[in-house]
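Q: Okay, next protein. This is isocitrate lyase from Stylophora pistillata. I've checked the sequence twice, so it should be correct. Can you predict the 3D structure?
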Amino acid sequence: MQFLRQPLAVNKLNRRLFPRLSTRKKYHIVSALRDYGPEVVEKLRGTIKVEYTLARRGADRLWEMIYRGEGSYVNALGAMTGGQAVQMAKAGLQSIYLSGWQVAADSNMASQTYPDQSLYPVNSAAKLVERINNAFIRADQIAHMEGKDHHIDFFLPIVADCEAGFGGPLNAFEITKSMITAGAAGVHFEDQVASEKKCGHMGGKVLLPTQQFIKVLNAARLATDVMGVPTVIIGRTDAESAALVTSDIDPRDQPFLTGERTAEGFYRSTAGLQQAIARGLSYAPYCDVIWCETGKPNLDEAHMFSDAIHSMFPGKPLAYNCSPSFNWKANLSDKEIAEFQKELGKMGYRYQFITLAGFHSLNHAMFKLARDYRDHGMSAYTKIQEDEFAQAQFGFTAHKHQREVGTGYFDQVSMAISGGTSSTTALEGSTETEQFCNKKSVLINEKQSFGR
C-alpha cells in the first residue's frame, strides 16, 4: 500500500501508526511503499507504548535537514568514539555518521580488529550509538549545569550503518529495532548478501536479487513502524562495482547477467552505473534516501545517477559517500575538491559524509604525536597543548580534560547529597583549577546551587 507524501495531520493511516505526530506537518514516513497495512503494525506493537525520545527527536531533525531546501545538504563525519562525536557537535556539524567499517576496525564488542566484512558481533554498532548518545547526554548536563549563554544542542542525529543486515529480513527487522532503542535517527542497509559482505571499495562483493533486498528494506520499515519512530531509512546499492549475484530469479536483474557461474554457484553480472541505476529505481519506493556506492569521486556519474532517479522519483533525497578510499587529489583539482559537495547538493545529494573520518584523524594525529615525541620529548606535546588553547576561542573545551568528562558535574552531585557541606569535591584543589581555570569562577559554579 502507498502512503502518499502529505501533512500527517490529514493522513488517517499515519494517525493510526504515529498518533503523537498526527498534529505536526512533517515529511517523514508518508512517502514509503509498504507491503503491509497499518492493522499489521498495530497487531505487532503490543499493549505497552515505549517512548524512544532520542531516536524520535533525532529522526525529526534529520528529516527537517534533508528537506531544508533545494541545493542544501547535511555534511557529516564518521565518529568512532563518544568524545569524537561531542567535538563534532561543538565544532558545528549537524549530524553524526556511524560507520560499520570503523566499528569493525576499532569499536566492536569482540574487542578485535576486523576488516569490513561483518565479522563483529551484531550488537556492536548499536552499542556505539548508545555510547555516543551517552556522551551527548553528559556534555549537555555539563553545559546546562554551567549555565552556558550559548548552549549547544548536542543531540545530533546519528545515521547508523546496518551493513547487509547480518542475515535475512528478520535480522534486518531486529537490528533496526536495536538501533532505534540506542537512539539512532537513521539507518542504512546495502544490497549485498550478508554472508559475503565486503566494504563497498573491496572486491568480491555479491549482490542479493533485487526482490530480496526490497524485503530487507520492508523489514526495516516495519521495525520503525512497530516502534513508532520516523527513522530515516537509506537504501544503498553496491551494483556499480559488484559483479556477482546470488540468483537469477528476479527479472529485473536478468539484463545484467552474463550467463556465467562461479565455483560457489553465484551468477556473474555486468557491474556498472546502469546496474546501479536499475536497482536504485527499484529500491526508491521502499526507502527514504538512495545511496549509490561509487569507486571514484566523479560528478558526471553522480549527475547521471541523480537524473535517472529523479526522472522517476522527482526530489528523491540521495546520499553520497565522500570516501577516504578515494585518492582525492589524484582524481580532482583543488578547485573541484572545494566545490565537490556543493555540486552534489545541487543534484539532490542531501546527506554527504566521510565514512572513516574518525579512524583516519585518530590514527594520523597519534602517529604524528608519537613520532614527534620520540624525537623531541615534551616539546612535541606542548605543541598540541598550545593549539588546544588557541582553539578555545572557537568553542574547544577539552584542554580542561577534568571538566570535559564531568568532574564538576559530579562535584555538584556530591554537594547536593551533602546539603552543600562536602569537603571532598574534586575540582577544587585540582591542578586544572589552579593552572587552567579562573579558580574563583569554579568555586562559584560549584556552590551556587546552595547559596554559599
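A: Here is a summary of the prediction. Residues 1-11, 21-29, 439-444 have pLDDT under 50 and may be disordered. Residues 303 and 347 are 6 Å apart (CA to CA).
Q: Noted. On to the next one.
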